[in-house]
Amino acid sequence: MIRGICNFKLVKNLESRFMKRICCLIILSITGLVNTNCLLSQTLIRLTTAELLCKTKLDNRGFQPGEDEESIDDALPLIDSSVAVELAKLSGVIPYNRFGYAITLQCQNESLKRMVLTHLLEYDKLCNGTLISKNTYDQQGLAGVYEYGRFTGSLISQTDTGDSNLLSIAAKEFEYWAPMAKDYIDVIMKSGMHQLAIKSGKRKFEPCVLASAENCSLWVACIYLITGEEEYGSSNEQLNDVYSKLMKKLRIDKRMDNRKEFVRLGKTDIITTTLQINALDSIDFEIIPKLKEKLDNTSKKDNAKIIVYTHGKKALLYLDYTEMVKMGFSKQLMRIPSLYLLELDSPTTIRLTKINFRERYN
Are both 120 and 248 inside the same structural domain? Predict the structure, then answer.
């Protein structure tokens, strides 16, 4: 019947891939036999974590989803932390690292800690900049140049009680930044008539003075998390004063067990199947009705992309497409990505959990 509707010889001769797809859709919609297999094959990317690591070794960039799909890389430690660490080490220097930042928040590893430290210590070289006003610093986004920013969380995640090597570095860095942080606390944070000159832009500062409270706070946090001491205990009272004030004014979380998880697991569905499954690496997800429905619904959308990473009894499933969504009185084209963790609880049971992230890169 299908042959009677469309001449496949003509389709074969069409040079345009787009026209082939349109013809396929017309045929299937007319017959009512909508089959998404032809679409799914165009949108599905599937790799084991071992294959992903191999590709990255062969090409330093490896297999690269676009920037918008980076959340699937961020979640890699959930299924294979050892490969996630290796990928972070192979994927370049922070902050241009495809895997490194998010993985340092989830995996404790000496090489990852060293990678973050190396990046942060580069900021020491920036402290001879031209004097600027606080208004200029804030309005031109210079915090991203002079402040540690999102990598604060990375190093705190790598900090353990009693880490003497990191303590030595943290103390040295704290004492480096503390004199600048004292100026920030005593002048910029302090109320008074001098605030008029600061707010008008007449009062200027070195850029690293403006960055010092934020940067110095990281080293205060590291020192506290390693030692548990709320006082610095130096013979230099200026250092003690800065340490104490930053602990209080900048509200450093002093509880090691209160550090937020980067990944938040959401709603969970239990999928049962009559099939006997030993691993997710080779399973055909399309033979499991609930998973097939998700894949089919995604593959029929515009700009559809499906990515699956697998590792034994665990997998990550990334679904993404664009759709016109009503926003107020008009419709706008929106990306609608979602990410799931799959876990094989038993040979006939798969746990499907929605993955969310707390405020990303915060």
Answer: yes
* pLDDT of 26 over the 50 cut: no
Query: How far, in Å, CA of 3 to CA of 9, rounded?
Result: 10
The three-state DSSP-derived secondary structure of 81-120 is: HHHHHHHHHHCCCCCCCCCHHHHHCCCCCHHHHHHHHHHH
Cβ atoms of 231 and 240 closer than 8 Å = yes
Please work out, in degrees rounded to the nearest 5, the angle formed at the alpha carbon of residue 332 by the alpha carbons of 327 and 337: 95
189 within a domain of the structure (yes/no): yes
Q: Are 79 and 311 in contact (CB under 8 A)?
A: yes
| SS3 state at 308 | strand
Q: What is the number of helices (H) and of strands (E) in the chain? A: 17, 9
**Domain with 234 in it:** 107-258
What sign does the CA torsion over 148, 151, 153, 155 have?
Answer: negative
> How far apart, in whole angstroms, are the C-alpha atoms of residue 103 and residue 312?
20
| 28 and 123 together in one domain | no
The mean-pLDDT minimum among 33-42, 175-184, 332-341 falls in 33-42
Query: 164-183 and 207-227 helices cross at what angle (nearest 10)?
Result: 140
Is the domain of 208 the same as that of 111?
A: yes
Same domain, yes or no, for 253 and 112? yes
Beta bridge partners of 341: 316, 353
Q: Answer yes or no: pTM beyond 0.70.
A: yes
Assigned domain for 143 exists: yes
Residue 167 burial (10 A CB sphere; 0-12, 13-18, 19+): middle
